[in-house]
Amino acid sequence: MNRVREAIRNSTAKLFETMFAALREIFDEAPYARFLNRTGMESSSKAYAAFRREFEEAKIRRPKCC
Amino acid sequence: MLLWNETQMHKTLGILAWVTVALLGAVAVATVALHRGEPINALWLVTAAACCYAIAYRFYSKFIAAKVLTLDGQRATPAERLENGRDFLVTNKWVVFGHHFAAIAGPGPLVGPVLAAQFGYLPGTMWVLAGAVFAGCVQDFVILLFSVRRDGKSLTEMAKDEIGPIGGFVAYLAVIAILTILLGVVALIVVNALKSSPWATFTIAMTMPVALLMGVYLRRIRPGKVLEVSALGFILVLAAIWGGQYVSQSPALAQMFTFSAPTLAILIMVYGFAASALPVWLLLAPRDYLSTFVKLGTIGLLAVGIVALHPTLHMPALTRFVDGTGPVFAGKIFPFAFITIACGAISGFHALISSGTTPKMIARETETRMVGYGAMTCESAVAIMAIIAACVMEPGVYFAINSPSGIVGQEPATAAATISAWGFPVTAPQMQALARAVGEQTLYNRTGGAPAFAVGMAHIFSHSLGGETLMALWYHFAIMFEALFILTILDAGTRVARFMVQDALGHVYKPLGRTSWYPSILATSALIVAMWGYFLWQGVKDPLGGINSLWPLFGISNQLLATVALCVATTIIIKLHRARYAAVTLAPLAWLVAVTFTASWQKIFDASPRVGFLAQARVLEAAPATASTMRLIFNNRLDAAVTGILVLMVTLVLFESVRQWLGILLGTKEVRLKESPFVRTRLAMEEQG
């Protein structure tokens, strides 16, 4: 019984983890984290502005369906 | 022995489970198809859809993966080989799935099925199911895989490489045409939803300061915390919806936020230009996030609402308008039902996303099946929800909302009498009561599908949460959701089109191609806005509501792009020496050619002035010549010319493709595949330890 409960708990946690990761990707939080990692910058107003500038160049070419 | 028994038992249970799903699906589809007379419960549609998607995904997509595409889990994808932490990035398959679904799901699968509901619930449902599993999902899947095997190349590049320069040029032209017509038609939908509605206009106007606040929060207070600021923005937008009712009740404020259709059209064009030409990411990026947040939430909420409430559909399976005399748009079931519903069944635009960011994030080839085929089944499910939302209304109410005044008359009593005479009873007091319940002055002549979808959604939600008292809030929530999303498409689409035009003009005069050169930015932004603005203005001024001519034009251009995508896919399959499986893409291609070419022919040459552009121009020519009729004549001829040019271009691609196929099959042409070379993946080895 305990094993079943633990398995359910683990898979629920994994489900939420994946959903959160997907949301972070869709909402560009993960790309921002990668940008900080890549450039070695600390999160700040200046770093975020730099991220947006770089991101806009790619984003405006990114298609979005009707 | 025990192991053998266990394996055998699992296999038997699996077979039994799939037989059950197949039987349940067959019963549900048969019930949906054959049920006549009494209203039908929405759960039959939901069950039919769920079973069809499950069977198609489990068996058909697996067949395509194994036999046609021979997915190779050992082959490194561009995400792995070219990983740079920006565009190319190995990503968890569920994360890519979510990302891809968020990009393909727009207002299209909500609006198209609502418009096609004028034929009844049956044609739309059947096309959404069959179209998705045999055409749309297949297109998204194969284009995604072929792009993965070509370093994430775009559809336009693949068309150029595999079919020839004509293929690339037509794909490019089709994308520009679709974007132009799409932006014009979605802007028209917003105009029709907001005209004479102070509550809805106030709510949308409030999203601007909310987005600015979000921008400041993201930049100054908590840099990069998009999810938390989106949740905050969502709460503020809900407050704006709540506050909108007080605006509509105050005579002074209501007047301030009440605009006519032409005024709203001008405002939207100014917005589109500003969004494309000015560096206003502080406003645009937060709006984009906010609309995505609202979109994902609303789709989830609607799914839960439909399953929990399983409402009854009042629209008959088939209406009298299958004969082509429908008030929402003119034309018979074939071909018009199949171009009206694009995104929920097959949409050429998806091929751009399947060959855009998604192929650069796929970790293993084997994941393209789940992302490409799987995400499209979810999009198709959204279209089924839209059909349900449109068909829960009394048919008389549906037609009163969606019929233009040019057909049913200006006065409420005349409109109600006309619609009732069609066999769909509705009264002026009934419409007045409904308009009051949703907080609007009138619901007549609200063409475009968005208001009808909002009424249907409000109907479903108000039966579960808050009852009739919250109906107005739900209605305006739905309008806000659609308008917000469409405005995001307007600014993103105008920018995408601007960059495509700048790329092309750069070949003529280099500085024009520079995305940082302001004269070029201003000129190309103005050009793009003028192009879609022209179609918007045409729709606003059209006595038949604009949707009658513009939505089919959009449907035709979108499906023609799907034709190009399927030509590319079939060419590659034949080049891979798998011609015996070419029917997988050739059958939907043949169907699309039949649909789009028939629709185009009828839209240009049909003798009925409600269907044929040229026939309508001839009728107008016979009338006294005024400035207005002269403009309408020009518009009809322009629409006919645009349709003709698109068909001509796609015919060229088809011709080039068939020439390639015959050359390869007859052995007179050398096969030149432009795949990137095989490199063994490191990921499989890492997984094995």
Topology:
The complex is a heterodimer of chains A (66) and B (689).
Chain A: H1 2-26, H2 29-39, H3 45-59
Chain B: H1 2-34, E1 40-41, H2 42-68, H3 78-81, H4 93-104, H5 108-116, H6 121-148, H7 155-162, H8 165-194, H9 198-221, H10 226-249, H11 251-256, H12 261-277, H13 281-309, E2 312-313, H14 333-340, H15 348-354, H16 368-391, H17 395-402, H18 405-408, H19 412-421, H20 428-437, H21 450-462, H22 471-508, H23 518-541, H24 547-575, H25 583-605, H26 613-622, H27 627-665, H28 683-688
Antiparallel strand pairs in B: 1-2
Helix pairs in contact in B: 1-2, 2-6, 2-16, 4-16, 5-16, 6-15, 6-16, 6-24, 6-25, 7-8, 7-24, 8-12, 8-22, 8-23, 8-24, 8-27, 9-10, 9-13, 9-22, 10-13, 10-22, 12-22, 12-23, 13-22, 14-24, 14-25, 15-24, 16-21, 21-22, 22-23, 24-25, 24-27, 25-27, 26-27
Describe the 3D structure:
The complex is a heterodimer of chains A (66) and B (689). Chain A is an all-alpha fold and 66 residues long. In chain A, 77% of the residues lie in helices and 0% in strands. Chain A contains three helices and no strands. Chain B contains 28 helices and two strands. Chain B has helices at residues 2-34, 42-68, 78-81, 93-104, 108-116, 121-148, 155-162, 165-194, 198-221, 226-249, 251-256, 261-277, 281-309, 333-340, 348-354, 368-391, 395-402, 405-408, 412-421, 428-437, 450-462, 471-508, 518-541, 547-575, 583-605, 613-622, 627-665, 683-688, and strands at residues 40-41, 312-313. In chain B, helix 8 packs across helix 12, helix 10 crosses helix 22 and helix 25 (583-605) runs antiparallel to helix 27 (627-665). In chain B, 57% of the residues are buried. The chains are: A mainly alpha (66), B mainly alpha (689). At the A-B interface, helix 1, helix 2 and helix 3 of A face helix 4, helix 9, helix 10, helix 13 and helix 15 of B.
